[in-house]
Amino acid sequence: MTSDRAACALLSVSDKTNIVDIAKALSQAGYTLLSTGGTARTLHEAGLSVTDVARHTGAAEMMGGRVKTLHPTVHGGILGRRGVDDELMLSRNITPIDFVIVNLYPFAQTIAKPEVTFDDAIENIDIGGPAMLRSAAKNHASVAVVTDPSDYQRVIDSLVQSDSAQKAMRLDLAAKAFAHTAHYDGMIANYFGKLDSENLDALSGTSNTVVADVQADGEQADGERLATAIFPKTLSTQFVLSETLRYGENPHQRAALYIDHHPAEGSLAASDLVQGKPMSYNNMMDADAALNCVRQFKETACVIVKHANPCGVCVAGNQLDAYQGAFRTDETSAFGGIIAFNTVLDAATAAAITEQQFVEVIIAPGLDPTAKPVLEKFPNVRVLDCGNISASPISSKNPAALHLPSSQVGFQFKPISGGMLVQDEDTHKLQESDLSIVSARQPTSTELADLVFAWNVAMFVKSNAIVYCKNSCTVGVGAGQMSRVYSARIAAIKAADAGLKVEGAVMASDAFFPFRDGIDSAAEVGITAVIQPGGSMRDKEVINAANEHGMAMVFTGVRHFRH
């Protein structure tokens, strides 16, 4: 037995973008519109006939609106199996609901506000919405569930499509709904997973600003520990499939790109491919390394990366000089490399790149219009516009994904067999005031500037990392060796092969020197100053070596391993 009653569409949305458009289409197609609260008011104001859910169920909203759609008339209308439960639905006066158009309370946006209180966060946890979405997604054989305004036109178009087309659409929308509720629940789980349950009473009325302070200090000003842990008890993350790649790190590996729901401006995931073939897995790895390195510099800079390591970095008065300085460091490795700039790509630099080397990818925060015709002559060169890179590469427009409402620090993930390592991103910014001069000789002002520059480069070189720099340009880079002294020797060899003079250059090491041999090796080729973290049992021996060679040495107290 089937119902002869007109079916319904239930609309209850926090984001009201284009909600009137889809409501009008459904109304014109003969659907009764059910709605609640602000959505109902919006539809009424648009001249649409709307039945309030409370009238439909015969049960008034209660508990300050917490209970309104949690009713058998609603969920029976959504979950009822057409052709199976029709008689029961008729006997219980349950009308089928064929469209569920719902998006949820803005929990993410709420907890991202610096002054939001814990109580506000709790009240912005949607209960009825996820229940309806899950019910509709489960019964997608008969019900279309819509969570995203960008799908409204698709749903409107489906009203005149074949049954098979509608069925395929409903299945796809159901998958999207389950992903949506999983992401939503994950944010809430992360939020709760960081709270200190032993001091729950103290949380009431507490703002995110206080919570952030507690995270930093471990206690409130009055000594009462309120606090949240840095890492939640369980870590829920969700990324969205952006594209399937030709292959992974090697041709026999399959690969895909997943991105954050709201990738940060200036990140690789938010970049636009202006021209060229699709990016490969290795292109993306190298482009990300280059972009993160070049953003360290305020002055006009160029970074060339090969196999995830900077092989040339330079800061100069203009973009072309910065590129030429980076290229000269290691012309051999630059072949087929990835080039990143922190300034808009100009025509002169684009011409120089394409004339003197093969390049896989160029990434910059925009392209000058005059550069486009230059690059169009080389259609296989991938050109990425990354947008504003002055923003933090880690910060997200959706910090609530990991419940970091008042912090710009993000998490870095590294998979291992059977698990995942999670750590803070290495965002340490060296200040000259942080340096400890440990040698007998003070570094000159020129050396000091080069030391800071070299340190910023070494931060992005695979360990053990040694970087030789002079006049704000790299002259030699030693990366990824099992012995630090071999990295130092390799840096000297690469400088010699490039015809660059090391004499008068400075050296940066990402970690301390365990023995003096690295200093001796650097002194042999003319290094005059060294920057390193310090902290070795043999620091005294290493400092003595620097003094013997007349080298200046400064300690940072911070290590920058990159495995």
Blueprint of the fold:
Layout: E1 8-13, H1 19-28, E2 32-35, H2 37-45, E3 51-52, H3 53-57, H4 72-79, H5 86-91, E4 97-103, H6 107-111, H7 118-123, H8 128-138, E5 144-146, H9 152-158, H10 163-193, H11 200-203, H12 208-217, E6 239-244, E7 256-260, E8 272-275, H13 281-294, E9 301-306, E10 309-315, H14 319-329, H15 331-334, E11 337-341, H16 347-356, E12 359-364, H17 371-376, E13 382-385, E14 411-416, E15 419-424, E16 436-437, H18 445-458, E17 466-470, E18 473-478, H19 484-497, E19 506-509, H20 517-524, E20 529-532, H21 539-548, E21 552-555
Parallel strand pairs: 1-2, 1-4, 2-3, 4-5, 11-12, 12-13, 19-20, 20-21
Antiparallel strand pairs: 6-7, 8-13, 9-10, 9-11, 14-15, 16-21, 17-18, 17-19
Concise overview:
The protein is built from 21 helices and 21 strands. The strands form 5 sheets. A 6-stranded mixed sheet has the order 8-13-12-11-9-10. It has a 6-stranded mixed sheet with strand order 16-21-20-19-17-18, with helices on both faces.
